[in-house]
Design goal:
2 copies of one chain form a homodimer.
Chain A (H helix, E strand, L loop, with lengths): L14 H5 L3 H7 L7 E4 L6 E7 L4 E7 L2 E2 L3 E5 L4 H15 L7 E5 L4 E5 L5 E2 H7 L6 H15 L7 H11 L3 H11 L17 H8 L2 H16 L3 E3 L8 E3 L4 E3 L6 E3 L2 H17 L6 H32 L19 H28 L5 H4 L4 H20 L7 H13 L4
Antiparallel strand pairs in A: 1-2, 2-3, 3-7, 4-5, 6-7, 8-10, 9-12, 10-11
Helix pairs in contact in A: 5-11, 10-11, 10-12, 10-14, 11-15, 12-14, 14-15
Chain lengths: ~425, ~425
């Protein structure tokens, strides 16, 4: 690192010599580099990820590649995404302390972040498939969303600082472009990289044939591409959450961008909904109902924590230009109606995003293991059909879904339904 | 200019020696600089403006000052606004040709733009006060809005280019800050720089006491500060339009920023509405009705031209990421519903901005001559009361105002009404 100024991907052979002179690394791993051991664990779609262990401790070393790892060098992707991940982690850590891995070192040229090794944490998606509950997960996720969304917005920030930060993150356009295409657009036409389980063709026809649905989806895309309300994680699904039985951390914010407040919430909820709908393929009927109930409770509890903390911050940290106290409290008037209206907008945006995220995970390029791990295509397509139809409902009838209880009822209805 | 790299305001004494070596200037004015004559005409609130005449032609030289000219050096304002004005003019000229003055020279350090001298053009606001109609004004303004709003958005631009441009214009935060404070906030509380005609206190109390109104205003501020739909002029009132009897040009885009599509339209319409309401103080009853009718017709015709051209561009230039043809026309489906929904949102945003702009022009710092030139405070307050109440109606009941015909009926109702 210190001897090279040109980008070069790490390998198992070079990682120790290249990192051994970096102070934060040696102080955590121990200075006897002969004891350092590296292993590559990259199981994501985009990057190189190593665990580096020494006699005193261990670390994660994450390095961006100049292309999409999942696809290869035919799909170039700028190294700058590491810069945006680093900057997102720094802001998340200050806005929502203890919810993201600690960062120890960042090298912009090498597109490399050295960070805390979360152990014995596992990816939440795997735990949901395995039927392993996590204590306290709703609290961590609810507080994380409330604090990052509120504190990254004009409700809280100095507006000139916020504009500078929005301008900085607009540089992450290549990763926004992925979301704009793969999430908001590809599911709704016969795009090149799409793939789907056989048997879904009729439902896909229904979705693509629904003009009202597509208008609402494109409205949501317009918000995604032109609405800089707050710094979003940008990819907050169950693959970006790591848990033990009672600890939860949020990782991988390389898609960080200033966007609508409902974006992270909607993506997160939809991934719980997909976990819920896919459960019958992963669980014996004995444990099925209980674990499905637990997932729906997580959604309800998460959103309750989110609204409570958002309300708390509204009362205690509303120092930005929006809804200033001078217009409400200082005139002896309540700002409660403003908060209610804002929360309602966030909720409706989140429902739309939820529906879209479900569609893209079943129809577009990047599917998720909740469904993809189901070997039997008949079973998979039946469950995916429920999810697709539920997604359509969330987008088209969001005004009728007042809260997470109403959402739970809808989830149960589609879970019971049969659409193939 | 060419001999100095440090910012220095021009004076009548220095303007000729400082500009005489700049090629575009000499080629327009003529190279015999002994024949050059300068006059200061700055009547705006912010900048130095000179006319420079030579034996071959004439030019406008506009230079930003490091403070607000209207207030003095107690209110500093960055020179960079000239950079944003220049960049706005360049984009407006390419997106809506022939609607803005030609730019001949720009010096970033000197915060100076040399541009076309519009002659015999007069500021539209003065013509509206004097009762002088302008032929073709609706067409120019309607085409300007449609073309700049459409072509500066993700409906048309490459989204990565657009994000870069949004990032660039986020640097204009000082001028956005003025709008955020003076337009969206100050009218709704007892702000330091506010002033108003005596007699309006009761109505002001009604406006500031209306929580629903203030929630809607702050929603609009949230859109202003966090919605980067398109490059807006940012200050498109009748003081930023210059006309002869049959030519119209749009000037002064130093408030240029990426914001909601309804912003320019709303500000423009509200300035026509204020001109309309203020007419009884400027016109004998003989000519009053005719000229008031003409103003309302301008609004209707302007919006018709806007929607027609926006629709035309939707059909012919929709090459951006939003509402792509792949999701509609290429699947044999119409995108008309999407266009309708978008135009409806623009209209509702415009109505809200109209109401807010009316409020700030009567209650905040920068009033407009339509009312301010009325010497008799009793008459002025009566007319301002009508405008204030109409503004409230536009914000609170916008969903009931379907189009410009409905808006005209409302304008006529408040024109007839009496509120003091």
């Amino acid at each position: 690192m210190t001897t090279s100024t040109e980008y070069e991907p790490l390998t198992l052979e070079t990682i120790v010599p290249r990192l051994k002179l970096i102070e934060p690394v040696t102080s955590i791993l121990g200075s006897d580099t002969s004891k350092w051991k590296a292993a590559e664990i990259g199981d994501g779609n985009l990057n190189l990820v190593f665990i580096l262990k020494g006699d005193k401790g261990s670390l994660i070393v994450k390095q961006a590649l100049p292309y999409v790892r999942l696809v290869g060098d035919s799909w170039p992707l700028p190294l700058t995404r590491a810069f945006f991940e680093y900057n997102s982690l720094v802001r998340q850590n200050s806005r929502a302390p203890n919810s993201v891995p600690k960062v120890f070192f960042f090298d912009k040229v090498q597109a490399l972040i050295v960070m805390e090794f979360l152990h014995p944490h596992k990816i939440l998606r795997g735990k949901l498939i395995a039927g392993e509950p996590v204590t306290g997960i709703s609290e961590v996720l609810g507080l994380f969303c409330a604090r990052t969304l509120f504190r990254g917005s004009d409700l809280s920030m100095d507006t000139s600082d916020k504009k500078n930060d929005v301008a900085l993150f607009l540089g992450n356009s290549a990763l926004c472009d992925i979301t704009e295409s793969l999430v908001f657009t590809d599911p709704y036409f016969d795009a090149k990289m799409n793939h789907n389980t056989p048997g879904l063709e009729k439902i896909i026809g229904q979705i693509r044939g629904d003009i009202n649905l597509k208008v609402k989806v494109q409205d949501a895309l317009m918000k995604f591409s032109s609405n800089t309300e707050t710094l979003c994680h940008g990819d907050l699904h169950s693959g970006s959450v790591m848990c033990t039985t009672d600890d939860t951390k949020i990782i991988d914010p390389e898609f960080g961008f200033y966007g609508p407040m409902g974006f992270d919430i909607g993506m997160l909820i939809s991934n719980f909904l997909m976990a819920y709908i896919s459960q019958p393929a992963h669980r014996s009927s004995k444990n099925l109902v209980k674990f499905q109930d637990w997932i729906l409770e997580i959604i309800i509890k998460f959103y309750e924590v989110f609204t409570n903390e958002f309300t708390n911050l509204w009362k205690t940290e509303r120092n930005g230009i929006l809804f200033p106290k001078s217009l409400f409290e200082d005139q002896g008037q309540s700002s409660e109606k403003a908060l209610e209206a804002l929360l309602k907008n966030i909720w409706f945006d989140a429902l739309t995003i939820s529906g879209i995220e479900i569609h893209r995970r079943i129809l577009s390029l990047a599917h998720n293991a909740d469904f993809e791990d189901i070997k039997d295509e008949i079973i998979r397509s039946r469950l995916e059909a429920k999810a697709l139809m539920m997604g359509k409902e969330l987008i088209l009838n969001r005004e009728a879904i007042n809260d997470t209880n109403a959402l739970s009822i809808i989830a149960r209805r589609f879970n019971q339904g049969s659409f193939l």
